[in-house]
Amino acid sequence: MDGSDVELMDQYTPRGGLDDGDHLPGSRGEHVLQLLFATRDRAKRFYERQVTDRLTPRMREFVARQEMVFVGTADASGNCDTTFRAGPPGFVRVLDETTLAYPEFRGNGVLASLGNIMENPHLSLLFVDFFEELVGLHVNGSATIVTAYDAARRHGLADEDMTAPGRRAERWVRIEVEEAYIHCSKHIPLLARQERGGRHGARRRPAGEDHFGVGRRGERPAERERSIERGLPAEREWPAEREREKAGKPAG
Protein backbone atom coordinates (compact mmCIF):
# COMPACT_ATOMS: atom_id res chain seq x y z
CA MET A 1 0.00 0.00 0.00
CA ASP A 2 1.48 3.40 -0.97
CA GLY A 3 0.49 7.04 -0.51
CA SER A 4 -1.83 7.02 -3.50
CA ASP A 5 -3.87 4.22 -1.88
CA VAL A 6 -4.36 6.35 1.25
CA GLU A 7 -5.47 9.34 -0.83
CA LEU A 8 -8.15 7.21 -2.51
CA MET A 9 -9.69 6.34 0.83
CA ASP A 10 -12.37 8.90 1.53
CA GLN A 11 -15.42 9.27 3.72
CA TYR A 12 -17.35 6.78 1.60
CA THR A 13 -15.09 3.86 2.44
CA PRO A 14 -17.19 1.37 4.46
CA ARG A 15 -16.78 1.27 8.23
CA GLY A 16 -15.54 -2.28 7.76
CA GLY A 17 -12.29 -0.71 6.58
CA LEU A 18 -10.42 -1.30 3.36
CA ASP A 19 -12.58 -3.17 0.90
CA ASP A 20 -10.16 -6.09 0.68
CA GLY A 21 -12.75 -8.78 1.26
CA ASP A 22 -11.75 -9.39 4.89
CA HIS A 23 -14.85 -7.70 6.36
CA LEU A 24 -13.00 -6.98 9.58
CA PRO A 25 -14.50 -5.22 12.58
CA GLY A 26 -13.14 -1.85 13.61
CA SER A 27 -12.72 1.47 11.87
CA ARG A 28 -11.31 2.47 8.52
CA GLY A 29 -8.55 4.40 10.28
CA GLU A 30 -7.27 1.47 12.29
CA HIS A 31 -7.20 -0.73 9.18
CA VAL A 32 -5.17 1.86 7.26
CA LEU A 33 -2.61 2.07 10.06
CA GLN A 34 -2.43 -1.71 10.36
CA LEU A 35 -1.32 -1.84 6.74
CA LEU A 36 1.07 1.09 7.06
CA PHE A 37 2.69 -0.30 10.22
CA ALA A 38 2.55 -3.97 9.20
CA THR A 39 0.37 -5.09 12.13
CA ARG A 40 -2.50 -6.50 10.07
CA ASP A 41 -1.78 -10.15 10.89
CA ARG A 42 -1.67 -9.49 14.63
CA ALA A 43 -4.83 -7.40 14.40
CA LYS A 44 -6.66 -10.11 12.46
CA ARG A 45 -5.80 -12.67 15.12
CA PHE A 46 -7.20 -10.34 17.78
CA TYR A 47 -10.38 -9.69 15.79
CA GLU A 48 -10.91 -13.40 15.21
CA ARG A 49 -10.19 -14.56 18.78
CA GLN A 50 -11.35 -11.70 20.99
CA VAL A 51 -13.96 -9.48 19.30
CA THR A 52 -17.61 -10.47 19.37
CA ASP A 53 -20.87 -8.77 18.44
CA ARG A 54 -22.63 -9.96 21.61
CA LEU A 55 -21.81 -10.61 25.24
CA THR A 56 -20.58 -14.08 26.03
CA PRO A 57 -21.77 -15.76 29.26
CA ARG A 58 -18.48 -14.87 30.96
CA MET A 59 -18.77 -11.25 29.83
CA ARG A 60 -22.29 -11.06 31.26
CA GLU A 61 -21.10 -12.51 34.57
CA PHE A 62 -18.21 -10.03 34.61
CA VAL A 63 -20.47 -7.00 34.05
CA ALA A 64 -22.83 -8.21 36.79
CA ARG A 65 -19.95 -8.02 39.31
CA GLN A 66 -18.62 -4.59 38.37
CA GLU A 67 -19.01 -1.50 40.55
CA MET A 68 -17.75 1.12 38.08
CA VAL A 69 -17.60 1.91 34.40
CA PHE A 70 -16.07 4.62 32.20
CA VAL A 71 -18.46 5.99 29.58
CA GLY A 72 -17.34 7.61 26.33
CA THR A 73 -19.61 9.70 24.11
CA ALA A 74 -19.22 12.31 21.37
CA ASP A 75 -21.52 14.94 19.89
CA ALA A 76 -22.42 15.24 16.22
CA SER A 77 -19.19 17.15 15.51
CA GLY A 78 -16.99 14.55 17.17
CA ASN A 79 -16.29 16.52 20.35
CA CYS A 80 -15.88 13.76 22.91
CA ASP A 81 -16.50 13.38 26.61
CA THR A 82 -15.60 10.66 29.09
CA THR A 83 -17.39 10.24 32.38
CA PHE A 84 -17.44 7.82 35.28
CA ARG A 85 -20.36 5.91 36.73
CA ALA A 86 -20.35 3.76 39.85
CA GLY A 87 -22.75 1.84 42.04
CA PRO A 88 -23.24 -1.49 43.77
CA PRO A 89 -22.18 -4.64 41.90
CA GLY A 90 -24.41 -5.09 38.88
CA PHE A 91 -25.63 -1.49 38.75
CA VAL A 92 -25.09 -1.80 34.98
CA ARG A 93 -27.84 -4.27 34.13
CA VAL A 94 -27.43 -7.07 31.63
CA LEU A 95 -30.83 -7.32 29.94
CA ASP A 96 -29.71 -9.97 27.45
CA GLU A 97 -26.66 -10.88 25.38
CA THR A 98 -27.00 -7.78 23.20
CA THR A 99 -28.46 -5.21 25.61
CA LEU A 100 -27.17 -3.34 28.66
CA ALA A 101 -28.65 -0.49 30.70
CA TYR A 102 -27.35 1.80 33.43
CA PRO A 103 -29.17 4.35 35.62
CA GLU A 104 -28.79 8.13 35.56
CA PHE A 105 -29.32 10.05 38.81
CA ARG A 106 -29.66 13.75 39.49
CA GLY A 107 -26.31 15.49 38.98
CA ASN A 108 -24.96 18.94 38.14
CA GLY A 109 -27.61 19.53 35.50
CA VAL A 110 -25.17 19.74 32.58
CA LEU A 111 -26.26 16.38 31.08
CA ALA A 112 -23.15 16.25 28.88
CA SER A 113 -23.26 12.52 28.13
CA LEU A 114 -26.99 12.45 27.51
CA GLY A 115 -26.70 15.54 25.33
CA ASN A 116 -24.08 13.80 23.21
CA ILE A 117 -26.28 10.73 22.90
CA MET A 118 -29.10 12.94 21.63
CA GLU A 119 -26.84 14.00 18.75
CA ASN A 120 -24.81 10.84 18.27
CA PRO A 121 -25.92 7.48 19.72
CA HIS A 122 -22.49 5.82 19.51
CA LEU A 123 -21.26 5.04 23.02
CA SER A 124 -18.36 3.14 24.52
CA LEU A 125 -18.16 1.49 27.93
CA LEU A 126 -14.95 0.38 29.63
CA PHE A 127 -15.27 -1.88 32.66
CA VAL A 128 -12.06 -2.49 34.63
CA ASP A 129 -11.67 -4.88 37.54
CA PHE A 130 -8.87 -3.30 39.60
CA PHE A 131 -9.44 -5.51 42.64
CA GLU A 132 -9.50 -9.18 41.66
CA GLU A 133 -9.25 -10.28 38.03
CA LEU A 134 -7.16 -7.34 36.76
CA VAL A 135 -8.84 -7.34 33.38
CA GLY A 136 -11.05 -4.98 31.42
CA LEU A 137 -13.96 -5.26 29.02
CA HIS A 138 -14.78 -2.86 26.19
CA VAL A 139 -18.39 -2.67 25.05
CA ASN A 140 -19.29 -0.43 22.11
CA GLY A 141 -22.78 0.13 20.84
CA SER A 142 -25.72 2.39 20.19
CA ALA A 143 -27.38 4.17 23.12
CA THR A 144 -30.95 5.27 23.76
CA ILE A 145 -32.22 7.44 26.62
CA VAL A 146 -35.14 5.80 28.42
CA THR A 147 -37.39 7.40 31.04
CA ALA A 148 -37.59 5.76 34.45
CA TYR A 149 -41.24 4.96 33.77
CA ASP A 150 -40.51 3.19 30.48
CA ALA A 151 -37.50 1.39 31.97
CA ALA A 152 -39.67 0.00 34.75
CA ARG A 153 -42.56 -0.87 32.43
CA ARG A 154 -40.56 -2.47 29.62
CA HIS A 155 -37.60 -3.96 31.45
CA GLY A 156 -38.55 -4.03 35.12
CA LEU A 157 -35.71 -1.64 35.93
CA ALA A 158 -35.61 0.39 39.12
CA ASP A 159 -32.63 1.62 41.06
CA GLU A 160 -31.69 3.69 44.08
CA ASP A 161 -28.66 5.93 44.44
CA MET A 162 -26.66 4.10 47.12
CA THR A 163 -24.78 7.30 47.98
CA ALA A 164 -28.10 8.97 48.81
CA PRO A 165 -30.65 6.29 49.80
CA GLY A 166 -34.16 7.13 48.69
CA ARG A 167 -33.07 8.98 45.56
CA ARG A 168 -34.32 7.08 42.54
CA ALA A 169 -32.95 6.86 39.01
CA GLU A 170 -34.40 9.66 36.88
CA ARG A 171 -33.73 7.88 33.58
CA TRP A 172 -31.74 5.03 32.08
CA VAL A 173 -29.35 4.62 29.17
CA ARG A 174 -29.95 1.45 27.16
CA ILE A 175 -27.11 0.16 24.98
CA GLU A 176 -27.49 -2.17 22.03
CA VAL A 177 -24.18 -4.01 21.88
CA GLU A 178 -22.31 -3.87 18.56
CA GLU A 179 -18.94 -5.18 19.67
CA ALA A 180 -17.25 -6.36 22.86
CA TYR A 181 -13.65 -7.30 23.51
CA ILE A 182 -11.08 -7.73 26.25
CA HIS A 183 -8.73 -5.11 27.67
CA CYS A 184 -5.65 -7.06 28.70
CA SER A 185 -4.33 -7.00 32.24
CA LYS A 186 -0.74 -5.98 31.44
CA HIS A 187 -0.89 -2.42 32.81
CA ILE A 188 -3.92 -2.58 35.12
CA PRO A 189 -2.83 -1.75 38.68
CA LEU A 190 -3.98 -3.85 41.62
CA LEU A 191 -5.98 -1.63 43.97
CA ALA A 192 -7.34 -2.25 47.46
CA ARG A 193 -10.80 -1.23 48.61
CA GLN A 194 -10.89 1.29 51.44
CA GLU A 195 -13.70 2.81 53.44
CA ARG A 196 -14.47 6.40 52.47
CA GLY A 197 -13.62 7.47 56.04
CA GLY A 198 -9.95 6.81 55.32
CA ARG A 199 -7.30 4.67 56.96
CA HIS A 200 -7.48 3.87 60.66
CA GLY A 201 -10.85 5.58 60.90
CA ALA A 202 -9.48 9.05 60.05
CA ARG A 203 -12.12 11.20 58.43
CA ARG A 204 -11.35 12.39 54.90
CA ARG A 205 -12.98 15.62 53.80
CA PRO A 206 -15.00 14.99 50.60
CA ALA A 207 -13.84 17.05 47.65
CA GLY A 208 -16.06 20.08 47.16
CA GLU A 209 -17.50 21.29 43.87
CA ASP A 210 -14.68 23.85 43.54
CA HIS A 211 -11.90 21.42 44.44
CA PHE A 212 -9.77 22.63 41.51
CA GLY A 213 -10.30 26.33 42.20
CA VAL A 214 -12.01 27.20 38.92
CA GLY A 215 -14.76 29.24 40.58
CA ARG A 216 -12.30 31.37 42.58
CA ARG A 217 -10.00 32.59 39.83
CA GLY A 218 -11.35 36.11 40.14
CA GLU A 219 -11.34 36.37 43.93
CA ARG A 220 -9.66 39.31 45.57
CA PRO A 221 -7.03 38.66 48.29
CA ALA A 222 -9.48 39.02 51.21
CA GLU A 223 -11.91 36.61 49.59
CA ARG A 224 -9.06 34.24 48.90
CA GLU A 225 -8.02 34.26 52.56
CA ARG A 226 -11.58 33.41 53.62
CA SER A 227 -11.59 30.52 51.14
CA ILE A 228 -8.35 29.21 52.63
CA GLU A 229 -9.79 29.50 56.16
CA ARG A 230 -12.74 27.37 55.02
CA GLY A 231 -10.30 24.69 53.91
CA LEU A 232 -10.61 25.26 50.17
CA PRO A 233 -7.41 24.75 48.14
CA ALA A 234 -5.33 27.85 47.52
CA GLU A 235 -4.12 28.86 44.07
CA ARG A 236 -0.35 29.08 43.88
CA GLU A 237 1.30 32.26 42.61
CA TRP A 238 -2.12 33.91 42.67
CA PRO A 239 -0.92 37.59 42.50
CA ALA A 240 1.26 36.92 39.46
CA GLU A 241 -1.56 35.08 37.71
CA ARG A 242 -3.95 37.93 38.54
CA GLU A 243 -1.59 40.48 36.98
CA ARG A 244 -1.24 38.36 33.87
CA GLU A 245 -5.04 38.14 33.57
CA LYS A 246 -5.34 41.95 33.85
CA ALA A 247 -2.74 42.36 31.12
CA GLY A 248 -4.54 39.87 28.89
CA LYS A 249 -1.62 37.48 28.91
CA PRO A 250 -1.92 33.69 29.24
CA ALA A 251 -1.05 32.17 32.59
CA GLY A 252 2.12 30.11 32.94
Any overview of this molecule?
With 252 residues, the chain is α+β, with helices and mostly antiparallel strands. Helices cover 27% and strands 23% of the residues. It contains eight helices and seven strands, in the order H-H-H-H-E-E-E-E-H-E-E-H-E-H-H. The chain has helices spanning 3-8, 28-36, 40-50, 57-65, 112-119, 148-155, 221-229, 238-246; strands at residues 68-74, 80-86, 93-96, 99-104, 122-129, 135-147, 171-183. The chain has a seven-stranded antiparallel beta sheet. Strand 5 and strand 6 form a beta hairpin. The longest helix has 11 residues, at 40-50. The radius of gyration is 23 Å and the shape is globular. 15% of the residues are buried.
Strand proportion, as a percent range, falls in 15-25%
Q: What is the ordering of alpha helices and beta strands?
A: HHHHEEEEHEEHEHH
Shape: globular
Total number of beta strands: 7
Reported for the largest beta sheet, the result is: 7 strands, antiparallel
Strand order of the largest sheet: 2-1-5-6-7-4-3
Helix and strand content put the structural class at: alpha+beta
Task: Tell me the number of helical segments per DSSP (H or I, 4 or more residues long).
Answer: 8
Q: What's the Cα radius of gyration?
A: 23 Å
C-alpha end-to-end distance: 45 Å
Average residue-wise pLDDT: 82
Poorly predicted runs = 1-17, 234-238
Oligomeric category: single chain
Helix coverage percent of residues? 25-40%
Brief synopsis:
The chain has 252 residues and is an alpha+beta fold. The protein has helices spanning 3-8, 28-36, 40-50, 57-65, 112-119, 148-155, 221-229, 238-246, and strands spanning 68-74, 80-86, 93-96, 99-104, 122-129, 135-147, 171-183. A 7-stranded antiparallel β-sheet has the order 2-1-5-6-7-4-3.
